[in-house]
Design goal:
Elements (H helix, E strand, L loop, with lengths): L1 H10 L7 E4 L13 E4 L15 H25 L5 E3 L10 H4 L4 E4 L5 H4 L9 H6 L1 H17 L2 E4 L4 H9 L4 E2 L20 E4 L8 H9 L9 E5 L4 H14 L3 E5 L3 H10 L2 E4 L8 H8 L4 E4 L4 H4 L7 E3 L3 H12 L2 H18 L2 H18 L2
Parallel strand pairs: 1-2, 3-4, 4-5, 5-6, 7-8, 7-10, 8-9, 10-11, 11-12
Length: 375
């Protein structure tokens, strides 16, 4: 949702937007002076308790209901006289069927493909047995996603890492516009910080918090920092797993869930180091937000991280290895001068290369070009 919010904020002074979202999603968007039309979608409520036993039926109904919702939104956009559409992914079907129902030129901003379809070892459901149970439903989801992706007039993604992977999955090469981080909303604090390490990301195995816990545990006790994990959503079961791991390994761990943005800003600026261990992260807002806060970043050298973190200049890149992470974190904790230099260089990079004005200019060029191409 960060990219969608950034696009709205950057483009709304130039383009006249009509914002359509499923009910509940509007809370993810900072108010850019736009009023969102929220569409009721009770089927979007997550399954829980005994209802999980009927998961295949419920998921099928959810997909059917989402298709109907997308058709109604497309009809409303037509009635409003919309000339083109900027579409972001949904949590039901990544490339919404809406794109295929539109009769106007469209730009689909694709953050990543559904990883449970295109990455080995990644599942949508908790285990492989449940994955087999809902296999037929997932095949329909995959068809809908592919149809939406290919129906767009133009597809844009966030990194050079994702572009060839999307081309391999869908047979179509997207343009690249790297999302911005507004450095002005983060207060930089340079030097040593307040002594804790910070990890930010959904409470999900793909975010790699368990690796961060293991890495922190390898730092000798006199120097071992407390670890704060901030997650906006995810699995309570995964949170329990990493909490038990922290107790077993002697890591002082605090998990914060759904913190207000103002609190997240404070946690960034007060951290001594921000650790990013997400698995093949397509882009990586977290290191950029940390850099905008003037904090040193230690990130795994994979995915979109390598496009935003210059090793030894704006942060530290290491292999996906607990020992390497521990050594990098420990080194920074004992060298405030280096932390200061990395923090200042990181913020300068965000201000220069990942600023909202550049992102808005690139997106506007694509949207207007698509409008011309569509007649």
């Amino acid at each position: 949702m960060r990219a969608a919010s950034s696009h709205l904020a950057g483009l709304s002074p130039t383009l006249d937007f009509r914002l359509h979202v499923p009910q509940g999603a509007a809370r993810f968007f900072p108010d850019p002076g736009l009023e969102a039309r929220q569409w009721p979608f009770p089927e979007g409520v997550r399954l829980g308790g005994a209802s999980r036993l009927a998961a295949p039926i419920m998921l099928w109904r959810k997909l059917r209901a989402f298709e109907r919702l997308c058709r109604r939104i497309a009809e409303a956009m037509s009635d409003e006289g919309c000339e083109r559409a900027l579409v972001h992914p949904s949590m039901i079907v990544a490339a919404p069927p809406l794109i295929g129902f539109l009769g106007i030129p469209s730009v689909y901003y694709c953050h990543e493909f559904p990883r449970h379809f295109y990455e080995k070892g990644v599942t949508k459901t908790p285990n492989r047995l449940s994955e087999l149970v809902v296999r037929h439903v997932l095949s329909r989801e995959k068809r809908l996603d592919r149809g939406g992706f290919l129906a767009a007039s133009e597809v844009v993604t966030n990194s050079s890492y994702m572009a060839p992977r999307l081309e391999k999955a869908y047979g179509r090469r997207p343009a690249i516009v790297r999302p911005a981080v507004d450095a002005s909303v983060f207060t930089p604090r340079y030097g040593g910080g307040s002594g804790y390490a910070l990890s930010v990301g959904a409470l999900h195995p793909l975010k790699g918090h368990d690796l961060t816990v293991r890495a922190i545990s390898l730092i000798p006790r006199p120097s071992r920092p407390p670890l704060v994990i901030v997650g906006d959503r995810g699995s309570r079961g995964y949170a329990d797993t990493i909490e038990r791991m922290a107790v077993r390994l002697g890591v002082d761990l605090a998990i914060r869930v759904s913190v207000p943005f103002e609190e997240l800003q404070r946690l960034y600026s007060s951290a001594s180091v921000v650790v990013c261990t997400q698995k093949n992260e397509p882009y990586g807002f977290v290191p950029l937000e940390a850099m905008a806060s003037g904090r040193p970043v230690v990130a795994v050298a994979e995915g979109g991280f390598v496009e935003n973190v210059a090793d030894g200049e704006t942060g530290v890149l290491v292999p996906r290895d607990a020992g390497a992470l521990a050594a990098a974190v420990s080194s920074l904790l004992s060298d405030h001068t280096r932390c200061d230099a990395l923090g200042r260089a990181g913020r300068a990079f965000v201000e220069r290369e990942r600023n909202p004005a550049t992102e808005a200019e690139q997106m506007l060029d694509i949207i207007l070009r698509v409008r011309t191409a569509g007649g």
